[in-house]
Write a structure and sequence with these properties.
Number of helices: 2
Helix content: 40-55%
Number of strands: 0
Radius of gyration: 35 Å
Order of helices and strands: HH
Structural class: mainly alpha
Shape: elongated
Length: about 100
């Protein structure tokens, strides 16, 4: 007993075709608006010097205390711990004075 090719095609296109919709149109999504602009109409570097550079400095100024103070504190703790570790790891020369 063999299944004919036409039955397989009929079954696939009628029952396995995701409701008769194409892959990009499976669900209706409301409230999302997309805009596109032709690549020939875009100005890639528009506002680079007048907006991007000042915004970068402004954002740096706003966040320097948020990140800078904890990083500086952490570095100072690390530096003090390294210095103390070197001091404690050093050999005492008086312990080896009689070794000749």
């Amino acid at each position: 007993m063999s299944i004919s090719y036409s039955f397989i095609v009929f079954f696939f296109f009628n029952f396995c075709s995701m409701g008769g919709q194409h892959f990009g149109n499976l669900a209706k999504i409301r409230g999302i608006i997309t805009f596109s602009l032709s690549p020939y109409e875009q100005r890639v570097t528009a506002g680079f010097w007048s907006k991007m550079v000042p915004n970068t400095f402004r954002r740096f100024r706003e966040n320097v205390f948020i990140f800078g103070i904890p990083m500086l504190t952490g570095y100072l703790i690390y530096y003090a711990a390294e210095r103390q570790n070197k001091k404690l790891s050093r050999k005492n020369p008086d312990d080896y004075a009689c070794d000749v």
